[in-house]
Write a structure and sequence with these properties.
With 278 residues, the protein is an alpha+beta fold. The protein is 51% helix and 13% strand. A hairpin with a 3-residue loop joins strand 1 (130-133) and strand 2. The two termini are 30 Å apart.
């Protein structure tokens, strides 16, 4: 973080730089590359870009309403099931990219210009101003910047990895994503029946330690070493993030030496069921 910058100023700068870098990268792709399968099973590269555009548009609109004092859900809103929402969103973004055919780069630039103007408005006002989010309810402006970094960083990897097997996460994003990891896991947790005995995971991520206790119907994650965990996992921050975001499965991670595991690996398989992603 640059000297004199607050954390939110740093994160806004990261989000804006990420959007600019993605726009520049997309400008170099051939028409054939836009139709390449991305790391997202349902989407080609162009569908991922459509998703990023739609997310920026909805976030900008929500933040604008938030500045006027409206952080409520839309009229008639019914909380959707996560799996149903994800499936609907996937098809929506495919349909939208068809509508934007020939103008997708221009739409990307315009959507992020509008969103970045909202960031600037919040910076002049208060980052504690609330705005509506479909999965998490009313969020502060600070939390919305965090979510935009997540979307940009993970989907940037989804795009680049379609052409480069050694693609990595933007290094400036890794600390932000690690900081929000418990909140992300909370968003994508798929409960099961209550377990007779909780499963305890120990994570060594870079130089930090975390313990997670899953009861089936709920989980708790906190900093610190796990005492006699059922499964221990060690990884760099980047590889841990790719695993928890569903971009690196457990079997491949272990085979490639990106994940180090000690304990009953069936608990790692179950982890991927509980934390399936969005």
């Amino acid at each position: 973080m640059a000297a004199g910058n607050t954390e939110i100023e740093h994160r806004v700068a990261v989000a804006k730089r990420l959007a600019a870098n993605i726009r520049a990268y997309l400008g170099e792709l051939t028409p054939e590359q836009w139709e390449q399968q991305s790391a997202c099973a349902e989407w080609q590269v162009r569908d991922v870009v459509s998703h990023l555009i739609g997310g920026a548009e909805r976030q900008a609109d929500s933040m604008e309403r938030g500045r006027s004092g409206d952080a409520n859900p839309p009229a008639g809103f019914v909380p959707p099931e996560p799996a149903a929402l994800s499936a609907a969103n996937a098809q929506r973004d495919i349909d939208r990219r068809n509508e934007m055919a020939g103008n997708i780069l221009e739409s990307f630039a315009a959507s992020y210009e509008k969103l970045h103007r909202e960031f600037d408005e919040y910076a002049q006002g208060s980052w504690d101003t609330l705005a509506w989010h479909v999965r998490r309810g009313a969020l502060t402006g600070t939390a919305y910047v965090e979510l935009r970094i997540q979307e940009l960083a993970i989907h940037d990897w989804d795009i680049r990895s379609a052409f480069d097997s050694n693609a990595g996460l933007d290094p400036a994003c890794v600390p932000v994503l690690l900081d929000m990891s418990p909140r992300w896991l909370g968003m994508c947790f798929r409960p099961s029946a209550t377990l007779a005995k909780p499963v305890v995971y120990g994570f060594k991520v870079g130089g930090e330690a975390y313990r997670m206790t899953v009861t089936g119907d709920a989980f708790q994650m906190e900093a610190g070493d796990a005492s006699q965990p059922d499964l221990s996992l060690s990884a760099t921050g980047e590889q841990y993030l790719l695993f928890t975001y569903g971009r690196l499965n457990a079997a491949d991670g272990i085979h490639l030496g990106r994940l180090s595991v000690d304990g009953d690996v069936s608990h790692l398989d179950q982890f991927e069921v509980w934390f399936k992603g969005l």
